[in-house]
Amino acid sequence: MTGTIVNVAAIFVGSILGLILKKGINEKLKKTVMDGLALCVILIGISGALKSSNTMLIIISIVIGGIIGELIDIDLKLKKLGDKLEEKLSKSGSKFSEGFVTATLLFCVGSMAIVGSIEAGLTGNYKTLFAKSILDGISSIIFSSALGIGVMFSGVAVLIYQGSITLMSGLLAGILDQAMTAEITAVGSLLILGLGLNMLNITKIKVANLLPAILIPLIYGIVQLI
Hints:
- Helix 1 (about 1-20) packs antiparallel against helix 8 (about 150-170) and helix 9 (about 180-200) packs antiparallel against helix 10.
- The protein has one domain (about 1-225).
- The longest helix is centred in the first third of the chain and has 23 residues, at about 25-50.
- Helix content is about 80%, strand content about 0%.
- The protein is mainly α.
- The radius of gyration is 17 Å and the shape is globular.
């Protein structure tokens, strides 16, 4: 859990700095940097998605995951959660939900969150999560300065999400192999690609409703072993 704790601390510190510097960061500068980060997110998404060697599994995972996510409507539930937190923190501003949801998806979905957490659980290697912490910390400064305190609360989601993966991967050490990890990573990377496109206002993909897709390759691998 060491890597995840460091990651959460980086988000908290970055968010605090962003809130402090909110008035000191030029709006044009915020937009330019956020657009640049969106391009980096897209690059990470593309590079991770290309690691897949089973395109059909990725397609099936996205379709099934999308159906499950839409029936549950994870996107709406995340927004409602953000709204409830906003009500309790009336001083947070109208962008609380947007900051919470956007940051939660950015920090939780993708190759570094998944692979880093799995590495930590299986081998105790925290290098990937430490690198992710630096990126998340920098992103938090910009996001919180533009979207408010909701970004800080995404750290709680990161703690639960990455912590759970780390603990589960330790229990599933005999099931998770390199090939399966690559497919899970590829699905997650496609979702973060969609998030990057949303950040640039090119698309309005409900990325949260596609989150169950990440579990499909794992289920597929387990079924193969039975």
